[in-house]
Amino acid sequence: MTAALKADRLIPKFGRRVRHADGRLFDADGEWVVLDAFYRRLIADGDLVHTDPPKAARRPKKGTSA
C-alpha cells in the first residue's frame, strides 16, 4: 500500500529565501505544492510554514459603484 501525497499551501518563513528542488525560488506569497519528502524536510527545518489560501476578492453588489 502506498501513501497518498497531499497538496498544501506553503510560504517561506519571514526573511528566508527558499528554493524548490529544481532551483526556482519559492514565491514569497506562498505556493501550492505536493508534500513530498523534500518539502516535509523544509517544514521540519523551519524554512517553510503552512498558510491559508488567499481570500477571493469580493465583487460589489449589482447596482452600486465601487
Describe the structure.
Helix content is 14%, strand content 20%. The protein is an alpha+beta fold and 66 residues long. The protein has a domain at 7-50. Strands 2-1-3 form a 3-stranded antiparallel sheet, covered by helices on one side. The radius of gyration is 16 Å and the shape is elongated. It starts with 6 loop residues before the first strand and ends in a 16-residue tail after the last strand. The model has no long low-confidence stretch (mean pLDDT 86).
Q: What descriptors fit this protein?
A:
single chain, 66 residues, alpha+beta, three-stranded antiparallel sheet, 1 helix, 14% helix, 20% strand, elongated
Q: Average pLDDT, to the nearest integer?
A: 86
Spell the H/E element sequence.
Answer: EEHE
Apparent shape: elongated
- Evaluate the radius of gyration: 16 Å
Percent range of helical residues:
10-25%
Main sheet strand line-up: 2-1-3
What is the makeup of the main sheet?
3 strands, antiparallel
Report the count of strand segments.
Answer: 3
Report the uncertain regions: none
End-to-end gap = 54 Å
What is the SS-derived class? alpha+beta
